[in-house]
Design a protein that fits this description.
With 274 residues, the protein is α/β, with parallel strands linked by helices. A hairpin with a 2-residue loop joins β8 and β9. The chain has a single domain, classed as BirA Bifunctional Protein, domain 2 (2-Layer Sandwich), CATH 3.30.930.10. Helix content is 35%, strand content 25%. It has nine helices and eleven strands.
Length: 274
């Protein structure tokens, strides 16, 4: 191990392919909760877990994730489906409610990431620097492929509806824009002693959302999951001073994720709470 590695904090890299919708959301929740517990324990003793977990995942079926505050009725109307959602399932699409806010996202031809950090107990508020850092990393990688992008705060040529149902038709300052179209958006949630940021990088148009072009549609450059995972991981490790090692969920996290998936993200009451 090099001297540089010895000076870095330990981080964990997880790559999960083709996960069910509820499971994908539950794993992020379980990691956030376990990170809070480890961070709290570390303030009382020498015990500690990874300083950060960087996770990349794909989806078993096309999945519409509703923002925490959105109405499930809007999802049925979006698909032109009946109120019980039966015809949505028949389309081969899953619907899940996120624990973070914002508009609905169609997870299909995209890369989804989550980054969970240990934080001081009780710290509040958004970490704008983390939004900026993660999005700047991806903007730099796009530039290396000859693709020009900009944070929306620096590229505001198009008016938009802030109440649009779909997240990728909305804009916030740190959203990454290519040729006027949003290609990357992220959201955050605080735990007791942790911070979860997850987001989506849109590769190409989904048949369910033909109004949203992705990077391939806009640039003609093919995007590959493995390439992006490797390149983002290297840059995140350098940016956050981490030594990222491939890992897996602990037994406790696995059990917690299974419980959270069953009690929350698979529960119709959670989905239809609004």
């Amino acid at each position: 191990m090099s001297e540089v590695d010895l000076n870095r904090q330990a981080g964990r890299l997880l790559v999960d392919l083709d996960g069910p919708a509820a499971w994908n959301m539950a794993v992020d929740q379980a990691i956030m909760e376990s990170t809070s517990e480890a961070s709290t324990a570390a303030t009382r003793s020498s015990a500690s877990g990874p300083a950060a977990t960087l996770r990349f995942y794909t989806w078993q079926r096309p999945t519409l994730s509703l923002g925490y505050f959105q109405s499930h009725q809007d999802a049925w109307r979006f698909f032109g489906a009946d109120v019980d959602g039966g015809s949505v399932d028949a389309l081969g699409v899953d619907v899940v409610r996120r624990s973070t806010g914002g508009g609905a996202i169609m997870h299909h031809h995209e890369l989804t990431y989550s980054l969970t950090l240990a934080t001081p107990v009780g710290q509040r508020g958004a970490r704008q620097d983390l939004y900026q850092s993660m999005h700047a990393i991806i903007a730099e990688l796009l530039a290396e492929n000859g693709i020009t992008s900009a944070a929306y705060r620096n590229d505001r040529p198009i008016h938009f509806d802030s109440e649009s149902f779909l997240c990728f038709q909305r804009r916030t300052d740190e959203d990454l824009v290519v040729s006027g179209y949003k290609v990357l958006g992220s959201a955050q949630r605080r735990g007791r002693a942790s911070l979860l940021q997850h987001g989506s990088l849109l590769f190409r148009t989904s048949p369910q959302t033909p109004q949203l072009p992705g990077l391939e549609n806009l640039t003609g450059h093919r995007q590959t999951f493995d390439d992006w995972v490797n390149r983002i991981s290297e840059r995140v490790a350098a940016c956050l001073n981490l030594s990222l090692s491939p890992g897996k969920l602990s037994a406790t996290e696995q059990q917690r994720a299974e419980k959270v998936a069953e009690q929350r993200f698979r529960d119709r009451n959670w989905l239809q709470r609004r």
